[in-house]
Amino acid sequence: MGLGDIADSLTRRIEGLGASAHGALFEPVIRLGVTGLSRAGKTVFITALVANLLARARMQGLAARRDGRIEAVFLQPQPDMTVPRFDFEAHLAALAGPEPRWPASTSSVSELRLSFRVRPAGLLSGLRRARIVHLDIVDYPGEWLLDLSLLDLSYGDWSSRVLERIAARPQAAPFFEALAAADPAARRDEPAAKALAEAYTAYLRQAREAGLSDCTPGRFLLPGDLAGSPALTFAPLPRPAGRSPRGSLWRLFEARFEAYKAEVVRPFFRAHFAGIDRQVVLVDVLEAIHAGPAALEDLRRALADTLTAFRPGRNAWLARLLRGRRVERILFAATKADHLHHSQHARLAAITEALLAEARSRADFAGAETRAMAIAALRATTEETHEHEGRTLACVRGTLLDGRNAALYPGELPRDPARLLAPAREGAEKWLDADYRIMRFAPAPLTGAPGEGLPHIRLDKAAEFLFGDRL
Ligand SMILES: Nc1nc2c(ncn2[C@@H]2O[C@H](COP(=O)(O)OP(=O)(O)OP(=O)(O)O)[C@@H](O)[C@H]2O)c(=O)[nH]1
Ligand SMILES: [Mg+2]
């Protein structure tokens, strides 16, 4: 056991003590992780979930609500003093204000505690006293999970993997130009290091914009307060022939890569990831389909990479940190399903399931129960059908960001997911037999009575799967 491991197990033990010390001794706490790659829909999901749990009129799919056992739901100060609070009120004001708009992008971890007063289920439910159950919701970027794979890699191995994967990508051309001008064995010099790191970060940003997801190190895209620090100032380099001299650029980057693992990646897993009981992974499958086969294949790989975090047996360090603890349920939710007519939702869920199939068959998620679902945290559209050249097209209608009202025919998803996944895997350039469209709709102004909650698709079913059994 190394020093780091001792520190890890100590932190876990102290955290365990903390949980019982702050009054939660008899009040169960469910820690729900909400993650997804950037723009997947995390902020909207949490905001809509909390708003709908506070109001509950649209949450019939939640058994405790249907049975009338939920007496009250209220927001509480969270127990973690040093984690930013999820800014629920600001995000809700954006979504549900007089001029509804989407909340701003967030780039770090945040947390919110919601508490339920529930009567127990069963025959005696009317007699037994209600109890308090806390739901701690933790929002963290999926990109940070990708970094788990770095823990097993040396700088040299990571570099060669990345360089090989991105060699043919047009977005990487400027970075390869910068690399050609650099000499890994040359004496290190900070401006050269910075220029390479910037070129690599620029590549990551463009790759992300092009819909690619395998973007490590994750913090290069979402640096938060680490922007500009040495631990974020490196890039992959081709291995110099022979031993790289001390004081070379290669050695500098190697040291920074190790620092990134020790000072950035491990603390995240220790502080935020280790305590999670239930997890939802939000996936913008529609956007990837729309962006084309390469983006879908990339999403599949990125998902497989992020999901290694939920099979801790595959990573010795994480397995030691968790010491047998595990995430009990994982929901894979294809978001923004309101872009599709409901007749296609089952197909979207099937595609999501198939995207995960490989990750799943390699090993199950250490006994976790998993499910795939198509959801919309905030429904921005209504459905309608149109006759076109003798065919009936199932469309959705909504208000575009510029205020115009438009109907969208997104294209018909195939019944068999392999029709999309196979060409994606084989490197097809575009979809052969179909065209998939997407439009950016603005959130619709609320029409329901106040206190009715926000319109959604299957958010109640998602909640039931994630924590309904604990209420
Ligand atoms: N139509 C529709 N669009 C959605 C829904 N959820 C999210 N979106 C869209 O997706 C965008 C991103 O949603 P966010 O919740 O901000 O995503 P995020 O994962 O928190 O993004 P970052 O904070 O940037 O990582 C929003 O601005 C909306 O345009 C939904 O339920 N329906
Ligand atoms: Mg966000």
Q: What does this molecule look like?
A:
With 471 residues, this protein is of the alpha/beta class. The protein folds into two domains: 3-145 and 270-379 and 450-470, 3-Layer(aba) Sandwich (Rossmann fold); 149-268, no CATH class. It has 16 helices and ten strands. It has a seven-stranded mixed beta sheet. Helix 1 runs parallel beside helix 13 (316-322), helix 2 crosses helix 4 (88-96) and helix 7 packs antiparallel against helix 8 (190-209). It is globular. The model is unreliable at 9-24 (pLDDT under 50). The protein binds guanosine-5'-triphosphate and magnesium ion (MG). The site of guanosine-5'-triphosphate has 23 residues, from helix 2. Residues 42-43, 105-106 line the site of magnesium ion.
Question: Gyration radius, to the nearest Å?
Answer: 24 Å
Overall pLDDT: 88
Strand content: 15-25%
| Main sheet properties | 7 strands, mixed
CATH domain fold name of the largest domain:
Rossmann fold
Strand order of the largest sheet: 2-3-4-1-5-6-7
Uncertain spans: 9-24
